[in-house]
Write a structure and sequence with these properties.
Structural class of chain A: mainly alpha
Largest interface: A-B, 9 and 11 residues
Strand content of chain A: under 5%
Structural class of chain B: alpha/beta
Distance between the termini of chain A: 19 Å
Order of helices and strands of chain B: EHEEHHHEHHHEHEHEEHEHEHEHEEEE
Low-confidence stretches of chain B: none
Number of strands of chain A: 0
Low-confidence stretches of chain A: none
Number of strands of chain B: 15
CATH topology of chain A: Non-ribosomal Peptide Synthetase Peptidyl Carrier Protein, Chain A
Number of domains of chain A: 1
Largest sheet of chain A: none
Distance between the termini of chain B: 17 Å
Order of helices and strands of chain A: HHHH
CATH architecture of the largest domain in chain B: 3-Layer(aba) Sandwich
Oligomer: heterodimer
CATH class of chain A: Mainly Alpha
Mean pLDDT of chain B: 96
Helix content of chain A: 55-70%
CATH superfamily of chain A: ACP-like
Radius of gyration of chain A: 11 Å
Shape of chain B: globular
Mean pLDDT of chain A: 93
Strand order of the largest sheet of chain B: 5-4-6-8-1-9-15-14-10-11
Number of helices of chain A: 4
Number of helices of chain B: 13
CATH architecture of chain A: Orthogonal Bundle
Chain lengths: 77, 412
């Protein structure tokens, strides 16, 4: 599984939304109407899953799945 | 005649049914819906029985995404609200949502969510706690969730007044409608006290029945061998609007909210005052607010705390206020069948009273077997009776004597 698929998997499982609802290149807020408390849960789950430390202001509801992948890649380097 | 506040929709989530038809059919039978608590280990609790809601997930219309963010007390209120809106045939597409409000009452908040998350916080640290905790547990959470779910933007309120919470919420809603501030209000209450911590707190109050072995006989208001009430959980919601608007929309009217009386004992932080004067004042005020005389009343839905003092004081207050008129007034405590829902109780009592009016039936007080010389009224023991009810009062008493008496009139 590629990193992007893994990220999409984590987001969808955490928020209980379908994978087809997350759209490529679209902000999470626009595609699935995510709110800021949901983003806190997403960030905490991503941190646990990837063993990294993202701050809640680095990944927000206005991030796209691709933005999140970039942040994770930068943390892993 | 002034434009009355009409009840045009009903939603109910209760230990004896999650639909209004089931709720009524079960109550009419006069059976107990009290059961042992088995959803967690309650074996060391002095009182470990309750009226419990089963199969909420089967009746829900909510997504898993939302359910995980809210406590069960909000979940029950959202299910009851959906029923009430559908029952009232509300056109959600075309209604002016800035004039729709939500008025709810509960006494304790959402403890299952709170205690679970606090445990995680102390065990796992800051990141162990759900970000939804902040918005899930507090008493106004159901009001917020209902308004968000439907996009209602009108004046709304949550009232916390122990076991009188939903009585006051329903009255506040009726007043808001009659003043023309909102066109439609969902009013009622919700309570979910069957959780490890909430049950412990309720036990320390000392007014819960400990008759765990004979649980279906445990809640026995006015009976000589009563030893306290039994907890219940659930939600009741009614849709309120002006009579003129209901008629214009062509929807059936179940009944009318006519008035309220309230008072505080001003005596102790959880005990009742040993005289019944304060409750009498609330009863008199409700009559006066509704513009009714004592002989107008056909039925009184009782508080029925099932404690030695509570039932005696309630009986004494009724005798002092109504005297000889009591011969023509039917009395009962239907909550003896499904438990006392604390802050949500009056909402359920209101729904039960409305159905009693619609069906010309007085619901029974169950488990009344041995008469107490101080509680010697006819409480409609054990079996429902036929009677036409046009005007009714509903009594709610909270800890320390927060007294509320709601006046309700029959619709069609």
């Amino acid at each position: 599984m590629g990193l992007k698929e893994e990220v999409v998997d984590v987001i969808c499982n955490t928020l209980e939304v379908g994978k087809d609802e997350l759209k490529e290149g679209r902000k999470l807020y626009d595609s699935i109407g995510v709110d800021s408390t949901e983003m806190v849960e997403v960030v905490v789950t991503l941190n646990k899953h990837f063993g990294i430390k993202i701050e809640t202001n680095e990944v927000t509801k206005f991030s796209t799945p691709e933005d999140i992948v970039s942040v994770i890649e930068s943390k892993k380097q | 005649m002034s434009d009355r506040v009409a009840i045009t929709g009903i939603g109910v989530v209760s230990p004896c049914g999650l639909k209004k038809e089931t709720f009524w059919a079960n109550l009419k039978k006069g059976h107990s819906f009290i059961d042992k608590i088995e959803r967690f280990d309650a074996s060391l609790y002095p009182s470990r029985i309750a009226g419990q809601v089963h199969e909420l997930d089967h009746y829900t219309h909510l997504s898993g995404r939302l359910i995980k963010k809210i406590d069960v007390f909000s979940h029950m209120a959202l299910v009851a609200s959906e029923q009430a809106l559908k029952d009232a045939n509300v056109d959600l597409e075309n209604i002016d949502k800035t004039r729709v409000g939500v008025f709810m009452g509960n006494a304790i908040g959402g403890w299952l969510f709170a205690e679970t998350e606090l445990r995680d916080m102390y065990m796992e640290g800051r990141e162990g706690i759900s970000p939804y905790m902040a918005s899930a547990w507090f008493p106004a959470a159901p009001q917020g969730q209902i308004t968000i779910y439907y996009g209602f933007k009108g004046y709304s309120k949550t009232i916390v007044a122990d076991r009188a919470s939903s009585a006051l919420a329903i009255w506040y809603a009726a007043k808001t409608i009659s003043q023309g501030k909102n066109d439609l209000i969902l009013a009622g209450g919700m309570e979910a006290p069957i959780t490890p911590y909430a049950l412990l707190s309720a036990n320390t109050y000392g007014s819960l029945s400990k008759n765990n072995l004979n649980f279906q006989k445990a809640y026995r208001p006015y009976d000589l061998y009563r030893d306290g009430f039994v907890l219940g959980e659930g939600s009741g919601v009614v849709a309120l609007e002006k009579e003129s608007q209901a008629k214009k929309r062509g929807v059936p009217i179940y009944g009318f909210i006519k008035g309220i009386g309230f008072s505080s004992d001003g005596y102790h932080y959880y005990q009742y005052s040993p005289d019944s004067g304060s409750l009498e004042f609330a009863l008199e005020s409700a009559l006066s607010d509704a513009g009714w005389s004592k002989k107008d009343i056909d039925y009184i839905c009782l508080d029925g705390e099932a404690t030695v003092l509570g039932d005696r004081l309630e009986t004494l207050a009724l005798k002092n206020v109504f005297a000889k008129e009591l011969e023509n007034i039917s009395l009962s405590a239907p909550k003896s069948m499904f438990g006392n829902l604390l802050g949500a109780q009056t909402a359920l009592d209101l729904v039960a009273t409305i159905f009693s009016m619609q069906n010309d039936t007085v619901l029974p007080t169950i488990n009344y077997e041995m008469s107490d010389p101080y509680c010697d009224l006819d409480y409609t023991p054990n079996q429902a009776r036929e009677k036409k009810i046009n005007k009714a009062l509903i009594i709610a008493r909270g800890r320390g004597g927060i007294n509320a008496v709601l006046a309700v009139e029959r619709g069609k």
